[in-house]
Write a structure and sequence with these properties.
By secondary structure, this protein is an alpha/beta fold. The protein is built from 26 helices and 18 strands.
Length: about 650
């Protein structure tokens, strides 16, 4: 396979001939060779590929070749942006470079993304939909669409969840629309494809289904899987293998039942369930914290109240389920099917409530979070695994021929100990760390001030950070990403700088992320202030972005339930939670933020990390050692000088 790989992406190869401006990168060929070896030898593989390596082309080349020898290859990503890049850009380029090797690719999404024609028929008779101009647009679109994919819509339809494909209402081959079904049309295309692009959440959902019922999987049989953006796998797997139960879960099904004129359940009976649901979640809403463990928030008496409230809700849900079972539906197949779907939903709710309140699970913890700004969801209960490595050992590593994990930020301290321990990756996996082909010493400068105090929540510290950012942004002429580890600090700095800078300040939350990026790219000197989602997956090339400021080392919030549970598990087994969990996680996050700056060989700029712990704390050198090799300074004068010569 390696000779074939070199013919395609080697120097002067097929890819170079069909892709104008393509530059040969030895690191790209090294990565492709490692992926090819892993697939040929049925081994697993871990690869960190620095910015500019061209990792998508590097793994697509051997993936295509391997897929044509038998089973298809899965490509799994975390973000929609990367999925679209693969489907709309990278895979079509590969097809151009390999005209004598035709292959098929398909993007597979979760069923909730696809219009259900049976549900649409039901919605036509819904009086609440009659005359709704948005529903009229849906009906028009339904006649034109070939895929039924909600991403085609250029407007938001608030009742999409009532007309999309749903596992509880799906009638499979018995449905009168089966031959035209958008979801099963996608499944058919996937069964005929060589490359199947999915996201991590769908992949792990399929993995969980296969464990329970191999004949009911979402994806077809495949020979290998490539995880891009693999540093997200633990969090996604933890979510998929757990339970999430929001305050709106019960309300949503009650709203749907209330709309039915042909179901003999009184409004009073449904109101009783609604009130019981409110009473249960009110106990969590009364806790004056946004995230907490069940056991930390409730004393013994309160726990009894919780269990009583949960028991009442479960009993009422069960009673409604029995009432639905007694409905007379013999003459109405559609109604019979609808009631069966409601009963499945209610049965699952009761089982999940029982797991949350009355069952103890090894390796799981129970916690609550109260998200801000949700239209319907104000509280969510979780049952989450502490460690997913054992689950992945039995479902992934032992069952799949070859699993490839890659990312621009996968390693910590130059190795893969952290990611391997968190995911249970086998010892014999191929490992490779590839640096970026960019010349960071010439293109960038790292500024770490020694004179700032250690990060704190004091207003004086926020003011000092604001003044330093003001100096940096003045030197760069705007054109900056200002990245923060918390909304609290972002808002404090924004309030301090608003009106003090001659540049437009764009703040995350004021508009959608896409709108903010679009506005930033159109501006010549804007400053974009963001948290979390702007640390990775954002690509701004050229002079539009010449400064990245990171307010402090991105250690995770230590008292959040997920981090506490994981750290406690490490400590209880005799480990060091700081070195084994907190530091590696922060190292990976810091590299993500740093990577926003240099995106091409001609980009130039400064990364400023305003955290003096990098210089003064024992662990600071470990962070600095594994950032891209560039010139460093503690002097603001050097930053000004750098920009004077740009």
């Amino acid at each position: 396979m390696n000779s074939w790989v070199e013919e395609i992406i080697g120097e002067g190869g097929a890819f170079a001939r069909c892709c104008e401006g393509y530059e040969h990168r030895p690191e790209q060929l090294q990565m492709a060779a490692a992926v090819a070896e892993a697939m040929e030898l049925y081994r697993h593989c871990l690869i960190e590929a620095g910015t500019g390596v061209g990792k998508t082309v590097a793994y697509l080349t051997p993936a295509i070749i391997h897929s044509l020898q038998g089973k298809p290859v899965i490509i799994s990503t975390h973000t929609i942006n990367l999925q679209e890049q693969l489907i709309k850009k990278d895979i079509p380029l590969m097809q151009s470079a390999m005209p004598d090797t035709p292959f098929k690719s398909v993007l597979v999404k979760g069923r909730g993304n696809y219009l259900c024609l049976w549900e649409l028929d039901q919605a036509r008779g819904d009086v609440t939909m009659a005359g709704d101009p948005l529903f009229e647009r849906i009906l028009k679109w339904a006649e034109e669409t070939q895929t039924g994919d909600v991403s085609e819509l250029d407007f938001a339809f608030p009742n999409w969840n009532e007309i999309c494909s749903n596992q509880d209402t799906c009638r499979h081959q018995q449905c009168c629309h089966f031959e035209k079904c958008h979801y099963y049309g996608m499944r058919k295309r996937a069964a005929e494809a060589d490359l199947i692009v999915v996201n991590h959440s769908l992949f792990f959902s399929d993995l969980g289904i296969r464990l329970m019922d191999p004949n009911n999987s979402i994806l077809p049989e495949y020979g290998a899987v490539i995880f891009d953006e693999a540093h997200h796998l633990e969090d996604v797997a933890s979510k998929v293998f757990g339970i999430e139960f929001s305050n709106y879960r019960v309300q949503n099904i009650l709203n749907r039942i209330k709309k039915r004129r042909d179901i003999a359940v009184t409004a009073t009976e449904l109101d009783m369930i609604e009130d019981a649901n409110k009473r249960l979640f009110a106990l969590f809403q009364d806790v004056p914290r946004s995230e907490f463990f069940f056991q930390d928030a409730f004393q013994e008496r309160q726990t009894n109240n919780l269990e009583e409230a949960a028991t009442e809700l479960m009993s009422l849900i069960d009673g409604l389920n029995r009432q639905l079972a007694d409905q007379d539906v013999e003459e109405d197949e559609d109604l019979k099917h609808r009631i069966e779907s409601f009963r499945r939903m209610l049965g699952r709710m009761k089982d999940e409530l029982h797991s949350l309140f009355f069952r103890e699970h090894d390796n799981y913890f129970k916690w609550c979070d109260k998200p801000n700004g949700g239209k319907f969801v104000s509280c969510c209960l979780h049952l989450t695994p502490v460690d997913v490595s054992s689950a992945l050992e039995g479902s992934l590593w032992c069952r799949k021929d070859s699993v490839i994990l890659t990312s621009a930020t996968l390693a910590n301290s130059g190795g893969f100990n952290y990611i391997r321990s968190r995911l249970g990756v086998p010892e014999d996996a191929i490992q490779m760390v590839l640096g970026s082909p960019f010349n960071y010493k010439e293109q960038s400068l790292l500024y770490v001030p020694k004179d700032l105090d250690f990060p704190s929540e004091k207003w004086t510290y926020a003011e000092a950070v604001s003044k330093r950012i003001e100096q940096l942004v003045t030197a760069s002429g705007g054109r900056a990403f200002l990245l923060f580890t918390s909304y609290r600090m972002l808002n404090a700095v924004y309030d301090n700088l608003k009106g003090r800078l001659p540049y437009k300040l764009l703040k995350q939350g004021e508009k959608s992320n896409d709108k903010l990026l679009e506005e930033f790219r159109k501006s010549d000197d804007a400053c974009l202030m963001g948290v979390h989602s702007f640390w990775e997956g954002v690509d701004v090339r050229g002079e539009k972005l010449s400064l990245v400021v990171i307010d402090k080392l991105p250690f995770a919030v230590p008292d959040s339930p997920i981090n506490r549970a994981r750290c406690d598990a490490i400590t209880s087994s005799g480990g060091d939670w700081f070195r084994e969990y907190a530091m590696p996680q922060a190292q990976i996050r810091l590299k993500q933020g740093f990577g926003r700056l240099i995106r091409t060989k001609t980009d130039r700029g400064v990364v400023a990390i305003l955290d003096s712990r990098l210089i003064k704390k024992f662990y600071g050198k470990e962070f600095l050692r594994y950032l891209p090799k560039c010139k460093g300074t503690m002097k603001m004068e050097d930053v000004v000088e750098f920009y004077n010569h740009c």
